[in-house]
Each structure stands twice: as C-alpha cells, then as structure tokens.
Design goal:
Radius of gyration of chain A: 20 Å
Number of strands of chain B: 0
Largest interface: A-B, 38 and 24 residues
Distance between the termini of chain A: 33 Å
Number of helices of chain B: 12
CATH superfamily of the largest domain in chain A: P-loop containing nucleotide triphosphate hydrolases
CATH topology of chain B: MetI-like fold
Order of helices and strands of chain B: HHHHHHHHHHHH
Strand content of chain A: 15-25%
CATH architecture of chain B: Orthogonal Bundle
Oligomer: heterodimer
Strand order of the largest sheet of chain A: 6-7-8-3-9-10-12-11
Number of domains of chain A: 2
Structural class of chain B: mainly alpha
Number of domains of chain B: 1
CATH class of chain B: Mainly Alpha
Shape of chain A: globular
Strand content of chain B: under 5%
CATH class of the largest domain in chain A: Alpha Beta
Order of helices and strands of chain A: EEEHEEHEHHHHEHEHEEHHHEE
Helix content of chain A: 25-40%
Shape of chain B: elongated
Amino acid sequence: MTALLQVTDLSVAIGALRLLDGVSLSVERGQILGLVGESGSGKSLTATAAMGLLPLIGGRVTGGAVYFDGRDLARMSEAERRGLRGRRIGFVTQNPMTALDPVQRVGEQIDVVSRLHLGLSKAAARARTVDLMTQLRIPEAAAVAEAWPHQLSGGMKQRIVIAMALAGEPDLIIADEPTTALDVTVQAQIIQILGGLVRERGMGLLLITHDMGVVAQVCDRVAVLYAGRLAEDGAVGPIFAAPAHPYTAALIGCIPQDGMAPGSLRGIPGVVPSARAFPSGCRFHPRCARATPDCAAQVPPLAPRGAAGAGRAACLHMLPEAG
Amino acid sequence: MSAVARPAPVRALGRPVGALAGGWLALVILAAVCAPLLTPYAYDVQSLREAYQPASRTHWLGTDEFGRDLLTRLIYGARTSLSVSGIAIFLSVVSGMTLGAAAAWFGGWFDRVVTVAVDLTWSFPEILIALILVAIIGPGTTGTMVAISVAYLAQFTRLTRAQILTLKGETFIEAARSLGASDGHILFRHLLPNALAPVLVSAMLATGDAIILEATLGFFGLGAQPPVPSWGGMMSAGSALVFKAPWIIVFPGLTVAVTVVAINLFGDALIAELDIRNRLQGRP
C-alpha cells in the first residue's frame, strides 16, 4: 500500500536560505505522525510544502519530492493541487483566533467547504456542519453555527477550524500546532477529540507540535526535526523509552513528570541556529553535551536505531539502548 | 447566542445623535423625492411682481430676485445636490474599490502604476481637480458628477488597497487557501466583505464633502445650469443681494451646512455601530 503522504528527501529554500535539507517522512492511513521540533526547525515549512503552497511564501523545492497518495505534487497543475486542498488534505491552522473570517458566521465558513468540495446544497451542507460540530462536542451546535467568530472562546474556535478541515471528508489532516494558542486545560481536550476523530474515520494525521507531551498522548510515530534536518524518527513507544538522538532525549526531558522536584524541569541550553548560519557537521553539536570534534566535521547519516524497524536517527554517538 | 438581525444603519438610528441626524437626512431626501407634491409653485416660473419678498404665509422662506418661491427652489435644489453628489460618490466607491482591490491583488507593475496615479491626484486639492475636469467636460450636472467622482477616487482606491493588503496576510486567508478556496472566492467572499465596512463609512463621510464640492462648483456657475436650481447656484445668485434680500443666500447656505453636519454625525453613529466588537457588548 502506498503511503498517504510521502515526503522523500525534501529540500526547500527561500531565496538563498536552505531551510529544509533532505527531510523524509510518511503518513499512512489511520496513522498519526507527530512532527516535532523547536520554533524555526522547519516544521511548518514541511506542512506548507506538503500542501503545495510553497510559492505563496516565496519558497521552492530544491530537491526531493512530496507524494500524495502516490502522486507527485510537483507534477500536478495548480488546479489539481487546489482540488486536493480541503477535499483530500484538510488543514488546521496554528492560531484559531485569527483563522476565522471575522465577518462571516462560523457555520457558513464550515458550510462553504463541503459545498465547494462535495457539491452539497445549502441545506445539506448545514446539516453536515451541525453534525460535524456535534461530533467535535460543541454543545447546541445549530445555535453556535449562527454565531460570529468573536463570540466564541479559543477552544470553541479551534473546534470550528477543525470542523472546516474535516468538512471536505479529507484522507489526510495536517494540523500545525493546533493547540499552541490555547489554554493548557483545553489543549488536551482538543488533541483528544482530533485524535479520536482521525482514528474513527481512518484518516491520516500529520500533527505538528513542539510539545513532546502531546506526541506521547496521541501519536503512533514521531519525526524529530532539528534545524531543517531529520534528527530521529520511529514509533513513539521505543523512542520515548530509549531515544537515540541526544536532541530527542533533551526534548523528552522537557516534559514535566509526576513527582519532579521543584526546579528540576530541564530546558535545552542554547537556541536553534539561524538558517543564515547553520553549524557545520551535525547541526545540533554546539548545544550537545555528547559532542566530539568529529561532530563538527561530519554530517551524521540517518542510520537505523536500536532494533530493526524501530526507526532511524542521525547521530554519530547514539545514546545506548537503555537510554 | 442571539444573532444580530438589524443592519447597522438601523441600529445607528437608535442612538440619539444618529436619530436626529438620520431624521434630518430622511426629511431632506423625502422632500427631494416628493418635491412636486409638497409645493404648489414651480421652480422655474418667474413672477417679477413678487420678487424680493421676505418670509410670509404664502412664501414660507420668501422669494428670490425673479419672484420664485425660495422653499420650492430649495426642495428642487435638494434633488440636484443630493443626486449629483450621491451618484458621484457611488461611482467613485465602485471604481475606487475595483481599482484598489485589483492593485492590491495583482501587485507588481499594475500596483505601482495605480499607486503613482492615485498619489498624483491625491496631492492636489479636490476642488482643483474638479475644476480642471469641469473645464474639460463642460459645466452641467454630468460634468459635476464626473468631476466629483474622480476627485474622490484616490481616497477609496487607497483605502481599499490598504485594507486588502493588510487582510491578505491574515491567517483566515491562508486557512481558506489551505482548504482549496480559489482566488475569486478569497477576493469576493473574504477580502472585499472585510474591507467593505471602512470604505462604506468613508463613503458616507465623503458624501458630505461632495455636497460641499457640488455647492462650490454650483456657486462658480459650473454646476446645474439655470433655471434648474442647485444649492450652490442659489447661493451664488444671493451673494450679490446679501443686504437687500439676505434670505436668498442664508437659507440654501443653512441647508448645506445642516445637511453636511447631519451626514457627518450619522456617519459617526454608523462607525460606532459597524464596529463588530461593539455590536454585542453587554449581550450574551
């Protein structure tokens, strides 16, 4: 079976800046892939490329390709790509506060997606909208559909945005940090609802986040991006049990745990390097406690980590199996 | 979750100032529309024996130098002044929005050409542009209308362009695009409706200015040609008779002033009501 979304060796540049360098990942039907990394690591850019919207932000593919359901996005016409967006690929934006048109009632904004892509009548589209909203656990969905965006809370708006993404009955949802702008209390709920619906309908979900806690909560597989390169990928269980890449280990170390002593929550020292001056060799080496001189000299290849089929990591000094 | 049913202009009338201003405007418009039903006199029949009469029972606002009823001419003048400035602003808004939206949407050389042209007209006073255009087209209502609409074109073009440029970067536009919306859908369903409210309010306020501009052109004898009355033309005729028959210039002048103030006040009430965030304050 071909993967729903297959990104192979993708490199993307904006102007002279090479922002993505040989990123590969794939999402199968019924699978949730978490794409993790700090701000500026290229997560959102990967999503933009996956929807074929790079020209909009002045980006271009300099290597590799994006396949949706086995078809190369670059070989499609813009009209074909537009037909995919919303219909087969649903998109959930980062900030629900600004993702809705302030002068349209929220119900209409969901209606229009199914009217455009599924050719539904006005009444049928509204029935579907209310149904979707109910599934997203919006109380009194029919009344809320008549509301204006500014009347709704952030969590409610994000559900509307998710309903818009689901309205075209897509096979794949790309969610770009869907909970970052929300209250912590609402975050878990939204992630659960989104994850639940995706599994129920057998869709694929590419969940972009910088929160390893969210990954642990719902994802099947995880891909860790650092400074435009893949650091590590694999199934969630083994990676959380024994991360091979020091960066992955550091990200996992950022999740608060039960019974932690006050002040013991770790951060990652240093900042993500700017694309104008990526470090030589392994791009993580200036921040890495395990770095040796050869880390600065040599770009680490993506190699199998641990047991066969458990994923890959790009590190010259992988952490031992025990973590 | 009560939806807002009444449109903004109706709600603006609910404010005390809005009601007062709106009331005056409604009165003027109604008078203009029903002019023949409201007065027993014709606006163009001269009766020299009755010239220069002050206000009386038979002529409520007096008569002018040809013995014509001033109130009648004022009411018929409202027809000219309101329709000329109203139509002119309408034309100006439609072409300004089209031009501004196209400039912001297509960008590139088209945007630069439009911006330069618009900034050029913007740098002259409106009256100067209007005078030049009337000189080219020739005096009369058509000339005045075109002159006024071109004079205000820059304002609406710039406003629409700025609105669309800001809105283009909004997340909801990106979201619409991510969900497969076409360029046309984004432009007509998202960008223009969002840009509309400020443009309409500025159109409302510009109508007030346009009435003054129309009166000015009329005062110079470039507007509606006699015997068709216009407020500016009436003031022009009265200007030589300020001491002999002051009512001839005072009443048209007052009408222009009150009408323009009313338009501005109503515009303010409309701005307050159109602000979508104000709309539901205090309502669940």
